[in-house]
TrEMBL record:
Domain of life: Eukaryota
InterPro entries: Transpos_assoc (IPR029480), Transposase_21 (IPR004242)
PANTHER family listed in its UniProt record: OS08G0208400 PROTEIN
Pfam family, one: Transposase_21
Domain (Transposase-associated) ranges: 3-69
Name the record gives this protein: Transposase-associated domain-containing protein
Length: 553
């Protein structure tokens, strides 16, 4: 592909090549085949045209395998070039989500400018004596910081030391601040939202300028006493909610061609020899099918995302330290195949709820930003599908939540105390209060779930003494029946529910089994502080059961 680069024929060849290259490109940049870059750097159309007219094509690049033409053999490349290529592929996927024209002379929007800076860092060498790029080095340093939980000050000391031992013409950021500023182009940002110290409200949106809570009157800031003995605000928030928006991350799933194709798996899969009665994916469940019936238009597009929400409290520090519990809230897209759906990279952290204790009934206050995004996703959000190579209207629906029973009460508004704490039986519960223990128990309340003629229903000594069970199994309430109970409550009319199934919450068996197992093991090994076996329990056993060898005294 040699010739006079000043001739009109050469310029026509270059324009024809650029037209073909960017026709099949996955974004606004593609490998530059000039003699200087040799397909090792990604350039925009304008820059590539300058390079080709200035340097010419790299030798022996006869099959445009990097620009859409099928090659009869694979071209071997150095390992570092492959690594840099993967990094640039990631940036190219990210760029497809931006709406801009690289040939326009107008100033690009800030997000696009951040992307261009990131692109330059991906092409710029760390210094003249290495093949490592600035972006590759900084991204690996940030990954090491996250993996080993390195302090910010420690990270700054490391970068300072590295800067001293490498050549002085290096491009390494001098501290964590500049490293984060460089990586900001990836769009992985989060919001800090001030919270009322009593969890009454968020200082967010129209309430962002308020200094005190509208409900309890407490200040949003930590207060200290001045010289006159009066409380003054320090402008340091008393409590903050960390919120990571999920819409950009859902849109980014479709920027990778491989993942975008996998997001259709639930609709385009082939069961093969598997029976229709075998549940291999949430798409086989009743909730998924009920949502499809409720909104056929939503179900028609295989890219419509079904979301699950999971949360639980945990102690981030050691148990010997002062007790502190925070509540992370995770979002999981269920469109992916089983081998991908529960991988770490597809479980999105949406909220980090801070509290020394659990948020309790005010959990809904912390969920407000997430709920607003879910409402927006239910209508539609513009996104780019790299598999179909076109824009589409992204929609998503909240399908269910996963948590233990105490969190179920906070999410669903169902009491987890007293006789009606079973979310299945509800008002048809057979729970009763222990005379000596004083607590409600469900002992021997499950025999009613057996078939009507089951022999265990007739036993009068194995369970409660003298009791035969004739009551029929409990029936699950429908969404309409549950809503009829709540007509007097204030409900947000913009929140849609599908009436055939309702909004059912799932609870994890792991937590329930762990609590039950802990009580059993503690009783067997006589762990006094955790065992449920005590004098009151033995007295109640004597009243309820025919087990004289276990009675107290």
């Amino acid at each position: 592909m040699g010739g006079n680069r000043k001739a009109m024929e050469w310029q026509a060849i270059v324009k024809n090549f650029l037209k073909q290259a960017f026709k099949v490109a996955r974004g606004p940049v593609t490998p530059c085949p000039c003699l200087d870059c040799k397909n090792g750097s990604y350039k925009t159309r304008h820059v590539m045209e300058e390079h080709l007219c200035r340097f010419g094509f790299m030798p022996n690049y006869l099959v445009w395998h990097k620009h859409g033409e099928q090659a009869c053999r694979r071209i071997s490349e150095p390992a570092q070039q492959n690594r840099d290529g993967m990094m640039m592929d990631m940036l190219n996927d990210l760029a497809m989500g931006f709406e801009f024209d690289p040939e326009e002379d107008n100033q690009p929007p800030p997000k696009v400018q951040e992307f261009y800076r990131l692109l330059e860092a991906g092409d710029e060498k760390l210094h003249d004596h290495t093949e490592k790029t600035v972006l590759d080095t900084v991204s690996r340093l940030m990954a090491i910081k996250s993996k080993h939980n390195i302090l910010n000050s420690c990270f700054n000391d490391i970068t300072e030391l590295v800067s001293e031992v490498i050549p002085s013409d290096h491009k390494l950021p001098k501290n964590l601040y500049f490293a984060k500023k460089m990586m900001a182009g990836l769009g992985m940002k989060y919001e800090k939202i001030d919270v009322c110290p009593s969890n009454c409200m968020l200082f967010w949106r129209e309430d962002d300028k308020l200094g005190t809570c509208r409900h309890c009157g407490k200040s949003r800031y930590i207060q200290v006493k001045n010289e006159a003995g009066k409380n003054v605000d320090t402008m340091v928030p008393a409590k903050q909610l960390r919120y990571m928006p999920i819409i950009p991350r859902l849109k980014r799933l479709f920027l990778s061609m491989k993942i975008a194709k996998s997001m259709r798996w639930h609709k385009e899969r082939r069961r093969g020899s598997q029976s229709e009665d075998v549940m291999v994916h949430p798409a086989d469940g009743d909730a998924w099918k009920a949502l499809d019936e409720f909104d056929p238009e939503f179900a028609r597009d295989p890219r419509s995302v079904r979301l699950g929400l999971a949360t639980d409290g945990f102690t981030p520090f050691s148990t010997s330290a002062s007790p502190y519990t925070c509540w992370p809230v995770f979002i999981m897209p269920y469109n992916l195949p089983p081998k991908m759906v529960l991988k770490d990279e597809f479980i999105f952290l949406a909220l980090v709820i801070p509290r020394p204790e659990h948020p309790g009934k005010n959990l809904n206050v912390f969920l407000c930003p997430l709920i607003e995004e879910l409402k927006q996703l239910w209508t539609e959000v513009k996104a780019y599908d790299s598999y179909a190579k076109k824009e589409f209207n992204l929609r998503a629906a909240y399908l269910w939540s996963i948590h233990d029973l105490p969190a179920y009460g906070n999410f669903a508004g169902w009491s987890m105390n007293g006789r009606l704490q079973c979310p299945i039986c509800m008002d048809d519960s057979d729970a009763y209060r222990l005379k000596h223990g004083g607590k409600y128990t469900f002992f021997d309340c499950t025999r009613r779930e057996l078939p009507p003629r089951h022999k265990l229903r007739q036993l009068t000594t194995a369970f409660r003494k003298g009791v035969k069970v004739t009551k029929l199994p409990s029936k699950r309430k429908t969404a309409k029946e549950i809503m009829a109970w709540h007509r007097h409550l204030k409900v947000d009319p913009s929140t849609k529910r599908f009436h055939g199934y309702g909004e059912l919450h799932n609870w994890t068996l792991m937590h329930q089994e762990r609590n039950v197992a802990e009580s059993i093991v503690s009783m067997c090994f006589d762990v006094t502080e955790k065992s449920k076996d005590n004098i009151k329990a033995r007295k109640d056993l004597a009243l309820l059961c025919d087990r004289p060898n276990l009675e107290y005294g």
